Amino acid sequence: MGLIGSKRKEEVAPEKNVQKTVGRVKRSQRPDDMIAKYAEILKTRGILPEYFLVHESKSSQYIDEDGDVANEFYQETMSDGEKKRLCRLLKNLRPKGKERYAIPRLKHDIPVVMWEVQKPEK
């Protein structure tokens, strides 16, 4: 009894705008700062950083039991005598998964002006 202080170390709250040093480059943890730096590189050097490219995405296609690949599968069924109708198949299908692009594509939500048109001066 009679302990004056606690032996537990006080936890320090992390600061929001801390900069990390990686090699010789200081990197901010805020994504807005990173995007601004990428935009500056794009504007001055004309180089498109890897951050703006997408190399693979989730495919919207499915694979059926036979190994056929398509967005939708239908089966012809007989009903009411000789009436034929197409019914969409939903069973025994599995998603194709991720699809790798042959040529990388741009992200859909790039917050940077990629091309700026200026009027010629007279």
Automatic annotation (TrEMBL):
InterPro entries recorded? FUS1 (IPR029393)
Q: Name one Pfam family in it.
A: TUSC2
* Region (Disordered) residue spans: 1-27
Q: Which GO terms describe its cellular component?
A: mitochondrion
Q: Where is the composition biased (Basic and acidic residues)?
A: 7-18
Annotated GO biological process: regulation of mitochondrial membrane potential
Kindly provide the name given to this protein in its UniProt entry: Uncharacterized protein
